[in-house]
Amino acid sequence: MRTPALFTCLFIFSGLLCGCRERCEPRPCAQVRESGPAQLPPGFIEPCRPELLSVQQSGEGMWPWQDLSRLDEASLRSRGLELPLSDFWTPGQGGLAQAVVGLRGCTGAFISEHGLLITNHHCALGAIQKISRADQNLLESGFVARGRSAELPAPGVTVLVFRSQRDVTLEMSRGLPADAPDLDTAVFLRSREKELIAECEKTPSMRCSLSRENDGLRFLLNESTELTDVRLVYAPPESLGSFGGEIDNWRWPRHALDFTLLRAYVAPDQKPAAHAETNVPFSPPHHLEVSTSGPAVGDFIMVAGTPYRTSRYRTALEIRRLHEWFYPRREALMSRWLAILERAGELYPEARIPNATMLRRLANGLTNARGQIEGIAKNRVIARRLSEEETLRTWIRSTRFPVSEKALEELNRHLEEVPFQDLDFLLSLMETGTSAYAAAYLLVKWAHERSLPDAKRTPGWQERDRAALLSRLSTGDLSYHAASDRMVLSMFLDELDALDPDQRPAHHRPAVTDEDRRRREEWLDTLFRTTTVMDPTARQALFAATPEALAQSPDPMIQFALAWFPAMQDMESRRLVDEGALMRLRRPWMQAIMAFRGRSFYPDANASPRVSFATVTGYSPEDGTWHGPFTTLRGMLAKHRGRAPFELPAAFIEAAQQEHHGPWMDPHLEDVPINFLSNADTTGGNSGSPVLDGRGRLLGLNFDRVYENIAGDFGYNPLRSRNIMVDVRAILWTLDRVAQAHDILQEIGVQAKPQAVTNTATRGP
Amino acid sequence: MRTPALFTCLFIFSGLLCGCRERCEPRPCAQVRESGPAQLPPGFIEPCRPELLSVQQSGEGMWPWQDLSRLDEASLRSRGLELPLSDFWTPGQGGLAQAVVGLRGCTGAFISEHGLLITNHHCALGAIQKISRADQNLLESGFVARGRSAELPAPGVTVLVFRSQRDVTLEMSRGLPADAPDLDTAVFLRSREKELIAECEKTPSMRCSLSRENDGLRFLLNESTELTDVRLVYAPPESLGSFGGEIDNWRWPRHALDFTLLRAYVAPDQKPAAHAETNVPFSPPHHLEVSTSGPAVGDFIMVAGTPYRTSRYRTALEIRRLHEWFYPRREALMSRWLAILERAGELYPEARIPNATMLRRLANGLTNARGQIEGIAKNRVIARRLSEEETLRTWIRSTRFPVSEKALEELNRHLEEVPFQDLDFLLSLMETGTSAYAAAYLLVKWAHERSLPDAKRTPGWQERDRAALLSRLSTGDLSYHAASDRMVLSMFLDELDALDPDQRPAHHRPAVTDEDRRRREEWLDTLFRTTTVMDPTARQALFAATPEALAQSPDPMIQFALAWFPAMQDMESRRLVDEGALMRLRRPWMQAIMAFRGRSFYPDANASPRVSFATVTGYSPEDGTWHGPFTTLRGMLAKHRGRAPFELPAAFIEAAQQEHHGPWMDPHLEDVPINFLSNADTTGGNSGSPVLDGRGRLLGLNFDRVYENIAGDFGYNPLRSRNIMVDVRAILWTLDRVAQAHDILQEIGVQAKPQAVTNTATRGP
Fold first, then answer.
1. Contact A630, A672 (CB under 8 A)
2. Of A272, B56, B227, B478, which residue is 20 to 30 A from A166 by alpha carbon distance?
3. CA nearest to A45, candidates B17, B53, B616
4. How many C-beta neighbours within 10 Å does residue B247 have?
């Protein structure tokens, strides 16, 4: 019954270099023909060795737009790129890349000439929450603006329209003495950074940021226009936007309609302006055409966005410490914290809404920590890094590269000495994880920074950051529940009690006896009963107070923050010294890595705009199983359980059960595709990244990675590095069939062919 | 970048009917070409819609050997059958099917002319446990007999060599009045069954059994020779035999080396005989040739064995009751029971070994119950059965089939009345789930049955069953731990307390007050302190005692069993009446089903020898995922965690890490295949079933089903009905490279090409 498959193989693998396993080098098809799936059974297509087949043209690399000219354009064209790379970005001129915008930790893209923007639902969640009212919960119902006048302001959302990316390495280092002490280096660079940004931001509405690349071997200045009048156009109900909730988070198979539409507004003269009735839609320099045919298995795609941080060039020793200390510590603390907030939810039902966001962040962080621990082990990241280090050492010896092999030893020696790591771990989490203490600390720190000249302040605490700090304070109010916050602060005090005495700041008295504990409880009661830091009116005065005035404040939370302030400042100093030292020690080793890798080298992600070139493909999460690259509407319906997080709205179910999905149906899947996978190189910050085809058309939106790829931050793995995207056809189907948002479809140039379907779901105000 | 795939499709689907989705009819390839995976990307083979591709030539049907002549042999030949079906079985003459043997609840197969047998490790577990000693734990170490004299008796294992299968329908029903009351019918048939079996067993060493098919529309008499001198030749350590333990049980991907080798011995004249030094290896009428090339994706295979029970023709109402009452009830009770035994293990570390088997059974039963509940829901078994019933009714009307449509209504009306179901549920579990009470009940029942003429006794309690009953008693000793047993009996008393008063037998006094409970605890203490039923010597006398003598026994456990005896007898009477009624009511409906299905009809499994024709294929457990049909040695190593149940012996790891696995390596997988999947129709009792290729050669051993197929007992699902098998190459590799059992390989005619590997692992005494 077997049939010779030589011909099939010839056909399928024709003329291409095929992938290979982790332990081998890429090899030509001829060899794959010999040892690959040579016997395909009749009526059957199945990968014998999915891991062989899953190694497509690698998606490794997050390329700064600045570096497009370094790439092998011919090779990209052979993979499916159709536009010239210069159309995406030409330094000094811009290009299609300007359709991709930054959204404070997320990415988005313009999809119409009238400032219509698309991003992830989870990126707009905070804004949607803020404009929801008790009688009109937009998270629950979703939202469709029927006409522009119905669009709602999306508070807190700002859009950064990318203008340029400029190499400022020389300007940064000019005048820095070669032998400056580490602290001086760090201070010098921070100061220069502030100067450059201040200079850049002299243009009104310009927001600038500096990307430090390759441990200070290159500095890029990113210039963007900031638009602050952003409005909500369409949001699916949360039950669709995060269908599967925490259960499906970081997982495949996935069925989330994680997208939202916004619109950026400007003054009638197209200048950025605060929200005003008279504002008009922004005309972006570029916007993306929307594909209606969507992606297919094996398609070439591009994922553009602002990836936040990767650690591809960290040493084995550093990753080992993360694996053995940091992630386990984080997992333990977050488990405890999560349990406390769950308990708070049982004790105080009213705490559930304010605590929801933090619970979600903790669950997400916990899964991430576990995924990192598992992934670093499973992908043998440390062993592989050690072997890469060995290869590099050998290469250094053989080429006489002008960097001492000793560079790594020196760097590792420094990395082994980490003073106060347990203390710093707790302090930084306590600052961001509590509400009242965080507010008090912000007020104290802000008063302190304001006593300094603007140019001398800590980055993030300058006058330019005033609005962001105020916004941070008011956002904190939404998630404040006093009794829960008290439980969390109590947990941090417990954790600080358990510190090694060498690390414990002198002013902190651990509760040892029952009497100590009783007193601490009493003190906590008073603290939360009397503090005014969570009262917006009272806080206004505190935000304007001098350090001296704060020192006189009767508010015990302010006094508590003042007590911890020196420890926090010490932590910052330690970081500054370390920053200088690491830059000095890492540079030679990084130079060797860059020279060794040559053209295939790309800098670690650092929140600057990038693009990844990839292929739509599945992967094998383990022996005997294969995750295919598409999920379907059928599969989404099958997951419906009638209760969160697997609860589909009735209108959605009705639309999904129609026989004909028209142009949104994939002919091969015979269904509407929902999510899909590729081997694109993404990380946090890529949420909402547009996925483009070879002609730059929108194919979907990136929104997550698979569990097996959580540890991908430490090293791209062609077998397991997969990102998860919403298929554009799922987006269009939803707008067409569920939201009946035909105006929007028309605006983005999509011909919605109305079908004779029941007129369901006209949500919105 | 896309390439037209028409040619591939033509090539792959050439000339075959392809599968289809659940909701459609099979359709020719031409259509699949149009709507199937028409765009294969370069360098990539992947099913766009795995569920379309997974519908191979269906594996549905467990065919009695008796019925082979009814099958469409030409169609089977086109699928890959190479031998004439008559070579497997010709009524009156036998055939290759005789190489397949029964092993009390399992199946096995002869693989040499010297009586060498292969079956699952889990089928020989009890025997291996019995011959283990504290200083030589064969479960832990595994066992290799170096030479025949080193083979160890395998206590309790008997081999049934299949001789014939004869239609005795006429003999069974001759003389039964057409209008006999239900009880009379049941008693008449039981009595006739005993006569036929007694007649058949007049030949020494002949063991006969009656298969009731299609609710009494056909009776087959199975005649087998029983061999009782069975010895252990090779067993892997349990860490390999049940690698993955309960975690992997019922699951894919799977990596268990679940096989064991035994040898059947007979007297020098080849007559069956009890164990004796002078015995010689049995020369089986047929034995299987062992394949060395193993199976490949899409291969035609046959799975032969003794499937225990399926319920393919039960009505929707009956399945609904199982789904809504029986499985949830079972799940709840087993969860409680499991928790009790786990608690016992914490309290009494010495209880862990005796309780191990029951813990395993409970965990297995619990997974099964959950799988049934999930599977019946997910496969929409009830809705589909209802629709089948509707189709059949329509057909009956249109064809004027001489069976009233009313048959189903009458049957359903009867099925709705189930008296005492809660009581019977508890009583039957209490009888098999406890040790001391089970022993006492067996003694009481045995005494009672012996007071009747042999021909009048309950089946299973005749003189022919004496040895089996004694063996049941002594097997119970091995798993007896008094304190645990007391906890379990106490749980059953609690459960009986909670019965509806209508069902509760009059003699049972529920413990209501604290005082009642205190008294019951005291009574239980005395019960377990003073009973002698678990003392082999004392029990010998009790086994020979008359009912009158037992009535005088001071043993409180005997008295307790005597008190429950009438309730147990009532339960048996209820069953007997129900048996007669169901036979009467089901027959007309079953006749309609049979007429409607015609040639594709096969009787429900009933422990008689059968064969299923199937295809090696994976399946899609859910949207976006695909379970491929092979796992590998590489994948098994990746699962190794260094602790049970994922703990590989060092010698195994060493052998696995060798670069060259010689002839046991699959050229496509580039590795030794461990387990594989097919769409064969199997159920409990198929454990150890040999898997044959089209020429009748051994390709592997069946040992489990996938989780999605647990509910397959109620209906074969071409998309999810998958069984799990050990690949013969995993078996041969283990014997060759780990066990160094080259004598065995030689005996089964396999050329082991010795490689220059380290001489590892020479386990055994």
1. no
2. A272
3. B53
4. 11
Residues of A in contact with B297 (CB under 8 A): 39-41, 44, 46, 48
This prediction's pTM: 0.82
Number of domains in chain A: 1
Where residue B298 sits, what CATH number does that domain have?
A: 2.40.10.120
What gap in Å lies between CA A361 and CA B496, rounded to an integer? 48
Within this chain, do residues B477 and B620 fall inside the same structural domain, yes or no?
Answer: no
Look at residue B748 and tell me if it is in a domain: yes
Shortest CB distance from A626 goes to which of B79, B623, B628?
Answer: B628
Amino acid code (one letter) for A575:
R
Residue B208 resides in a domain:
no
**CA-based Rg of chain B, rounded to a whole angstrom?**
27
Q: Is B214 touching A (CB cutoff 8 A)?
A: no
Residues B608 and B585 in one domain: no
Identity (one letter) of the amino acid at A686?
A: N
Same domain assignment for residues B352 and B336 = yes
State the Cα–Cα distance between residues B129 and B477, nearest whole angstrom. 13
Q: What is the dihedral of CA B326, B329, B332, B334, to 10 degrees?
A: -60
A 31-60 residues inside an 8 A Cβ radius of B: 35-50, 53, 56
Tell me how far apart the alpha carbons of residues A643 and A239 are, in angstroms, rounded to a whole number. 10
Query: What are the mean pLDDT values of chain B's consecutive 10-residue runs (765 residues total)?
Result: 31 26 23 27 35 60 90 91 95 92 94 98 90 85 95 93 92 90 93 94 91 92 95 97 93 97 97 95 97 92 95 93 94 96 92 85 90 89 91 87 81 88 94 92 96 92 92 84 95 95 90 93 95 93 95 96 95 92 90 87 93 92 89 94 94 92 88 96 96 97 94 89 97 96 95 49 38
The answer, yes or no, to whether ipTM is higher than 0.90 is no
Q: Which of B1, B2, B15 sits opposite A79 (nearest CB)?
A: B1
The number of angstroms, rounded, from the C-alpha of A377 to the middle of its chain's C-alpha atoms is 23
Q: Which residues pair with A724 in a beta bridge?
A: A677, A704
Residue A498 lies in a domain: yes
Q: Give the number of A-B residue pairs with CB atoms closer than 8 Å.
A: 219
- Is B121 assigned a catalytic role? no
Query: B690-692 and B300-305: which strand pairing?
Result: antiparallel
Interface check for B277 against chain A (CB to CB < 8 A): the answer is no
- Rounded-to-integer distance, Cα B224 and Cα B101, Å: 9
Cα gap B227→B284, rounded to integer Å: 11
Residue corresponding to tokens 């170490």: B141
The reply to whether B48 falls in a domain is no
Which of A255, A296, A625 lies closest to B628 in CB terms?
A625
Question: Do B621 and B753 fall into the same domain?
Answer: yes
**Residues 6 or more apart in contact with residue A759 via CB below 8 angstroms:** A740
Q: Do B424 and B350 share a domain, yes or no?
A: yes
Indicate whether B626 and B516 sit together in one domain. no
Beta bridge partners of A305: A610
How far is the CA of A312 from the CAs of A318, A321, A582, B282, B297, in angstroms?
Answer: 11, 15, 16, 65, 39
- Are the beta carbons of B37 and A628 separated by less than 8 Å? no
**Which residues constitute the domain of residue B518?**
316-592
Determine the residue type at A402: P
| Look-up of token digits 């621990």 | A373
Q: Which of B552, B570, B592 represents a domain boundary (last residue)?
A: B592
Contact B44 A56 (CB under 8 A): yes
CA distances from A230 to A151, A260, A379, A588, A697 (A): 9, 12, 42, 45, 23
A162-201 per-position pLDDT tens digit: 999 889 999 998 999 888 999 999 999 999 999 999 999 9
Residue A13 corresponds to which tokens in the numbers above? 């693998």
Dist. CA A211–CA A230, nearest whole Å: 26
Nearest CA in chain B to A298: B41
Q: Specify whether B282 is located in the same domain as B331.
A: no
Cβ of residue A228 closer than 8 Å to a chain B Cβ: no
